[in-house]
Amino acid sequence: xxxxxxxxxxxxxxxxxxxxxxxxxxxxxxxxxxxxxxxxxxxxxxxxxxxxxxxxxxxxxxxxxxxxxxxxxxxxxxxxxxxxxxxxxxxxxxxxxxxxxxxxxxxxxxxxxxxxxxxxxxxxxxxxxxxxxxxxxxxxxxxxxxxxxxxxxxxxxxxxxxxxxxxxxxxxxxxxxxxxxxxxxxxxxxxxxxxxxxxxxxxxxxxxxxxxxxxxxxxxxxxxxxxxxxxxxxxxxxxxxxxxxxxxxxxxxxxxxxxxxxxxxxxxxxxxxxxxxxxxxxxxxxxxxxxxxxxxxxxxxxxxxxxxxxxxxxxxxxxxxxxxxxxxxxxxxxxxxxxxxxxxxxxxxxxxxxxxxxxxxxxxxxxxxxxxxxxxxxxxxxxxxxxxxxxxxxxxx
Length: 397
What we know:
The protein has two domains: about 5-45 and about 290-395, Alpha-Beta Complex (Aspartate Aminotransferase, domain 1), CATH 3.90.1150.10; about 65-285, Aspartate Aminotransferase, domain 2. The chain contains 14 helices and 14 strands. It has helices spanning about 5-10, 15-30, 45-55, 70-85, 100-110, 130-135, 155-160, 185-195, 220-225, 255-270, 275-285, 290-310, 345-355, 380-395; strands at about 35, 95-100, 120-125, 140-145, 165-170, 200-205, 230-235, 250, 325, 335-340, 340, 360, 360-365, 375. The model has no long low-confidence stretch (mean pLDDT about 95).
């Protein structure tokens, strides 16, 4: 008899965290590693948020449990923020505060999927999505869009993947890992397709404020209001406010789904840490000045890394319109000999790059088909120039 359950044994380790962990371990050992792995802003959390959290530590009420769905003040702040930023009007009982966005992802699938239900998963996808679907008893049906489509799936592709078992579509725009952004017209077309076919939308909006070149990322139930009763929105403070370590996310959805997810969370983790909730209240009720300042830096780095990558023979890097990732095709490099080694897959190429020039990137296999690397440009301009420069030197020797 196996010591580990089949359900848990089938879960793959987070590839992004694995790459980041390896890079940090090498750095700790004194190696000059440059890491492009983790999707984590390199800026400090804005000071007014930190100050609110520090003050909260001195309030005895914050040393206790809160209601499982979250502090009433935070849930109201999420309601107000959603109307302000997305023009989507919701009520407090449609909000559940979670321990980061990942818990929201898992609970969304767990709340609506039964064994055998299928979820259409546009690829490239964030590594956690298929594992969360699997844990909930569902089956991920991948639909791949390559760089010629700017990594954006079409309604025709979705329709080809639809079966009688299709329960939901995972929709992420701006995208992790590609940074691609669906236009309002594309959002409307996909939303109307989902409505017509009675398919749930699970919309990950965590990168909503990280947009460039005039791109917009309209919320699905705003574009197609009839979807409101079959849409779950996932969001959080991590990316927008450089608060990855504070672990505050949330779900927005129909009241019965939020009640079910709350029941699950009451047995899983209870409430989010009070001090983190107080910090999130300060973040959401504050202005977006610090967010816009970070956005200016991300935009500059985006242009820098795209330009440098496209100078490398065999690499083709589309220009993303959102998030803080680039997702170049490296298919033109595969099969070539690099310092006596041959990389036939992007996973093998990522290993060679890390071993030979100590630069960490995440291979495409973590997000879908081989042939790609993901680089996070949530790092300094200097590291971008040095890191991509090392790769260029390696691949052009």
